């Protein structure tokens, strides 16, 4: 499953040396000393004895996580290494979805990022995050903004850092996971997916635009919900905090390793410095241009 030679990639501002071919990540130069911020290796990984039967996530400590999937067993250590034990004959695309998704996202948590289950875009130099339960349309809404000429920062997760000036979003990698039906309907500026598996409903399409090299200030968070018309409403402060808690990507890790209090504090800080609104819209493809236009008009009207 692993390649004969390791390759060096970049994701979320980190250099990643991988024993697996990951075409979704852009190539990066190898440092003269051969070091990288993150290493991905293939090795045998026994299931932790302390892991509950049937569980897909297990935290030994806040520095040692295990992902226990049918496709692979993954160990994530110290925010620096990802060890992978693939299942026999697992398709390459299925394994890559694990690597650039859950494995990398949990590693970001270990590196101190607040990892939010959201797709993010940059609009006029400001980050906008679309948050909601799985399948609510985070990526599709971000694609609508891409069609409107804006840049994708990250797909499915937002790596948020808190600094003195407020929360900022780090660009992820130049790929987004799209439904082929949406791609055919709108023809977004993306490259065809590579090494696809027919059993996957969505594939990684490469972005054609450059992503910001520096973190982008987080301006707005939209909580996505279904609705009959496009509506933007205010959200109560207490509801804002709980929405961020509920949509913390590494929620299982927080419950397992005792970081719930610090995560709640981070949610409060983000709420204090970022506007959070509820965005209701019909979940139909033909409404996407109107949704993107509404988001942009909201940002422009409130910056005047």
Automatic annotation (TrEMBL):
Which protein, by its recorded name, is this? HPr kinase
């Amino acid at each position: 499953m692993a390649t004969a030679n390791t390759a060096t990639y970049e994701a979320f501002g980190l250099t990643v040396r991988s024993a697996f071919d990951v075409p979704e990540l852009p190539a990066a130069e190898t440092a003269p000393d051969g070091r990288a911020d993150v290493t991905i290796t293939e090795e045998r990984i026994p299931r932790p004895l302390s892991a509950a039967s049937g569980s897909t996530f297990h935290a030994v400590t806040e520095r040692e996580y295990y992902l226990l999937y049918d496709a692979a067993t993954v160990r994530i250590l110290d925010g620096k290494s990802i060890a992978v034990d693939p299942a026999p004959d697992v398709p390459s695309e299925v394994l890559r979805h694990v690597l650039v998704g859950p494995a990398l996202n949990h590693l970001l948590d270990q590196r101190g990022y607040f990892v939010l289950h959201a797709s993010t875009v940059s609009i006029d130099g400001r980050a906008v995050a679309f948050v909601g339960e799985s399948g609510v349309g985070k990526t599709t809404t971000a694609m609508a903004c891409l069609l409107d000429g804006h840049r994708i920062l990250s797909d499915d997760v937002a790596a948020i850092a808190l600094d003195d000036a407020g929360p900022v979003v780090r660009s992820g990698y130049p790929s987004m996971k799209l439904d082929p039906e949406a791609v055919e309907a709108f023809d977004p500026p993306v490259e065809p997916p590579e090494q696809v598996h027919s059993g996957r409903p969505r594939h990684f399409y490469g972005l054609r635009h450059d992503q910001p090299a520096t973190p982008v200030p987080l301006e707005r968070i939209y909580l996505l919900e279904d609705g009959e018309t496009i509506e933007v409403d205010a959200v109560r402060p207490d509801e804002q905090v709980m929405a961020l808690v509920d949509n913390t990507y590494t929620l299982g890790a927080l419950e397992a390793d005792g970081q719930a209090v610090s995560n709640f504090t981070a949610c409060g800080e983000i709420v204090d410095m970022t506007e959070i609104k509820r965005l209701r819209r019909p979940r139909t493809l033909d409404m996407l241009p109107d949704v993107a236009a509404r988001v942009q008009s909201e940002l422009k009207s409130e910056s005047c």
